[in-house]
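User: quick one
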Amino acid sequence: MNEAVTNLWSVPLLIIIPILTAILVNLLYNKTKAIRAISVGASIAVLAIAVLSPYGFHWFAGHPAVNSDGTYTFTASVFSWKLSLEYYYGPLQQILIGLMSLLLLFTVLIATKSLSKNLGPYLAIIFLTYVSAAAVLMTNDFYHLWIAVELGSLLVAGLVASSGTAYAQKAALKYTFFSALAGSGLAISLGLILGLTGYVNITDAIHFLMSNDLGGMYAVLYVAFAFLTLAWVYAGGLVPVHPLKSDVYRSAFPHGTVLLQTQSKLMLVAIGIVMLRLFGSLPFATDVMLVISVLTMIFGVVMALIQTDLRWILAYLIVSHSGLVTVGLSLGTYRGIVGGIFQALNDVIYMSILLICCEMLLYFGKGSTSIKFGGGVAKKSPWLAAFAVLGAMAASGIPPFNGFQSELILLQAALEQGLPEVAAVILMVSVSTFVALFRAIYSIFLKPEPEKTSESYVGRFKMPDVVFISLVVLLSISLILGVYPQLAFSFINESALKVVLVPWVP
Amino acid sequence: MDAKELRGIKGVVAAAALFIIFFGVFSSFLQLEGNVARGISEEYNKLAYKMAPNNLASWVYDYRAIDTLLETGVIYVGAVVSVLVLGRGLVRLKVPEEDEIVKVTGMDLKTETMPVLLKYFALPVVILLIAYGLLVVLEAPTSGGGGFQCGVIVSSAYLLSVIIYGKKSPFEIKKKTLVALGAFGWGLYVLMGLPGYLTTGYWQYNVGSDLWSWLSSFPGEVPEILKTVFGEPFKLALQLKEGVFYATSGILPIINIGEAFNVIGAICLIFFAFIYGWSDPEEEKLE
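Assistant: Done. Structure below.
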């Protein structure tokens, strides 16, 4: 595959198709059949593009790069200063965007099946959420990173507020308010880097930093790092904003949370990698990231343990597992980065299984997922119970599922760095996840059915076909990655190596 | 928030955090003073006039075109989300849910109490504002203005007319039209990337000014017809002392117009929903 190409055909389509789809479905508003056809078609299209695309760059607006002798070039194989805004599509982008596209398809299918009228604006927000995460993953430009994160924050609020309940609107408002602070922080950070280097292209800025004596300019770098960390924390819902993010995860419809948590995890990975590329060699930078990650793991899982509603349990576990993702990145080593990215990939898959099961429970339990209402669901819907149990096993790091493999790598990475205490916390999170999930699963699915009350889950339940197929596909991927993790490594390894050895290369 | 809440440990933490942030940002600004690197901006300045007769247009709509596309998206999404909170497009599961939807109603706007004098003066002001907005967007390639500014000016005209005349405003726009205006605007901006993509492979390549076809490493070629269609209507020929200066801003003016429609649709829709609330036709029939 020719990676030097600067007009890679697939990159604009991954952004433009969802945008046009969002515009169209918003316009169609309540024409459900047309909206469904367009949305499903667009989701399949972006999935196909993500899978079939070769690797390379796209220099938007087609301006060349400037060589050191002042001549211009359109090839990316040699270093030159970029005039254009640059996107890169490599193996890491392929696997992450490919997975997100698959989840987009499932989300669209479930949303069009399970939601009532006036779907247009809601699906528009879903497609644009996809755009924001894809842009963050592909861009190699500070300013564009900022715009994509800003757009993403606004969309999270929209997705949450779309249910129209007081609680959801409050959660959306709080999140919007604080994410405005994070967005401003990110703007200050990139403003400082731009002032220091003169380049908005991340590769060019890193080149400048590495090839120039910064003298006494370290305060600028540390302040830029601090504000970038703030944005990272808000985008991913790390400590201390974990209550806001868990509110968001709980308040959206579970199928919406599938895409929300995917967006968060992918942003954590993408921004985390930018932080490592830029500030990885700055003393104490990775230590700060590590402390935030460990606290997130602990706070998230402890909060999950005391919840009595499956939606809340999942909301806090998603936060806690975000800490697992970032702890790997924060170690800053090759193995740590591989573990962190692999964890993000796995986490997105098994949490999606559990969230979709949760949505089915909403039907089953007359709108409730409280463990107090439970009992006997396994008898009425054995498939749903099986998916929930297997998804919980994957989330708890039990072999042969994917969660086991990534947590094992994270443990190895922590021990290699001489940090057994971090390894102990990772183990604790794994065990606590098991306890939190199986306590709820036992109460809802496995416990004998209580005497019939108006609050118990009623009747036999047949899962819609789209939900069944979605769960089978996701569980199969979870199992395949658990048995054969090399499949994912072939996409992740190169990026991890670049971050460690040649950080200026996207 | 009550100021009393900031007493005690909360206040100390807040003050310390503010001090650290202020100290950090201020000290970094001090370090940057006199050390700001010009970097790529020198190259931008050198080339800017070749793609549009002013730097602002070339930076915002050419070098940073995809950036501005997503920024335009922020305005579009802002409208979609704001109006959604007010009731347009709220969705429910097809099962009973624990929580009820919050009903938001519009403002209690009483235009009949407006002084007659205001009603007489508002109409010409609205017309002038719209004309000024159009001037700003059409002059965008040669001036500091642009689509966003035009959108804000025309939206102000709309707001003024609604406040003064209410639903019987001479500048009345239906809510479906407002949604369509926003969609048309952002859609037009998006689609302006297509000619460059199909001919050169680069999304948003400015086919009208066609700045880089002469380079041997440039992978595509822009057909003459596209250069003419997108270039000629916006060709600018200025007589300078050194001789004839020729420039064409190509697709940039059209992008500006797209942005203007997007902003008009988005901001007017937000005004509309805040003032009148939102109810769908089916619900209106029920009422």
